[in-house]
Amino acid sequence: MADPIMSQATARAHSNIALIKYWGKRAGPRNLPAVGSISVTLDGLYTDTTVVFDRALSSDTAELDDKPADTARLTPFLDLVRARAGIETRASIVSTNNFPTGAGLASSASGFAALSLAATRAAGLDLEPRELSILARQGSGSAARSIFGGFAEMHRGVLDDGSDAFAEPMLDADDWPVEIVVAITDRATKSVNSSIGMMGLDERSDYYQAWVDHAETDLASMRDAIAARDFETVGALTEMSCLKLHGLMMSTRPGLIYWNPATVAAMLAIRTLRDEGTPVYFTIDAGPQVKALCAPGHGESVARALERVPGVLETRRTALGPAASVIA
Ligand code: 2P0
Q1: Of 103, 167, 183, 275, which cross-links 144 as Cys (Cβ 3.0–4.6 Å)?
Q2: Could you tell me the pLDDT band of residue 5, with boundaries at 50, 70 and 90?
Q3: Is 22 in the pocket of ligand 1 (CB under 6 A)?
Q4: CA nearest 142: which of 175, 190, 115, 107?
Q5: Exposed, middle or buried, 211 (CB in 10 Å: 0-12/13-18/19+)?
Q6: Which CATH number fits domain 179-319: 3.40.50.1110, 3.40.630.30, 3.40.50.720, 3.30.70.890?
Q7: What's the N-to-C CA distance of the chain in angstroms?
């Protein structure tokens, strides 16, 4: 289309948490994952992003939570959208998270999913969810999953052009209303972001090939367990994928430790709750927060228990959330 003087759109995308984790990239320039992943999208954690393409701008600008943000990762991403729309106009991006940014709560997932939707709509494009997921992946691997609500699976794909590396919906949020409780143990931005943490793993970790080799088996088991609504198996696979991920991180030169003492205390508290009969399992991403996966109806009691764990600053309880959507 011809570049309009100004065009804008606002989108909301929800954060997601992987049950079967993504970590590591295939060779190539398009942010291709080395392994598939399976996630749940969260109702209570989201990013709202407004993109304005404005011919008065000489470069892209960005603001996150009312502060200027670096455009180094954003301009190449907007260039993908501009190329697709056949426009050259620069854009302003204004984004807000309703949760701490960069602290292991998947802000890049909700952020790049919201940006993908807002930027394409503002540029006059109306992409199918799969195309949007492929685009979002190029911003951040986990963002490909936040295009969808409920349970979603990200495919690693095999093609160099990334056209088969996208996420797909598995179950809607209402199909199986499991709950998530996030125990926040530190609000600071993490020291090693995920993209850097997972760079060059084949050279940096002796465990990496084993991680890649076992991914398909874990994904297949998780697919079956979700289809059967088998909470205990979903939970056990989730906890094991988390521990394998952190084993891989710790084995990476230089060893990456994202946990603090409260992280470990919360993990152990969740295991104690389980021993006492509460259906709950933990997972942890590239940060110190602990996410408790709770069977339907158990979120409140788990939140109360985690609030009593020394070092847990606060908890957030959330249901599963919807797909990314345009809100203005
Ligand atoms: C996941 N994480 O599956 C895993 C588990 C964190 C731990 O995906 O380089 O920000 O932008 O593709 O998506 C975080 O990594 O990395 C992530 P990039 P991303 O959720």
Answers
A1: 167
A2: confident
A3: yes
A4: 107
A5: buried
A6: 3.30.70.890
A7: 21
Q: Is ligand 1 within 6 A of the CB of residue 48?
A: no
Q: Is 190 touching ligand 1 by the criterion CB < 6 Å?
A: no
Q: With DSSP H G I counted as helix, E B as strand and the rest as coil, what are the percentages for the chain, rounded to 5?
A: 35, 25, 40
**What does the pLDDT average to over 296-308?**
98
Nearest in space to 237 (alpha carbons), one of 312, 297, 169, 151: 151
Calpha distance 198→155 (Å, rounded): 18
Contact predicate 234/225, CB 8 Å? yes
Question: Which of the residue ranges 69-73, 103-107, 137-141 would you say has the lowest mean pLDDT?
Answer: 103-107
How far is ligand 1, taken at its centre, from the CA of residue 50, in Å? 23
Rounded distance from Cα 4 to ligand 1 centre (Å): 35
- CATH code assigned to 6-176: 3.30.230.10
Instruction: Give 190's pLDDT tier (boundaries 50, 70, 90).
Output: low
Please give the structure tokens belonging to residue 175: 């199909």
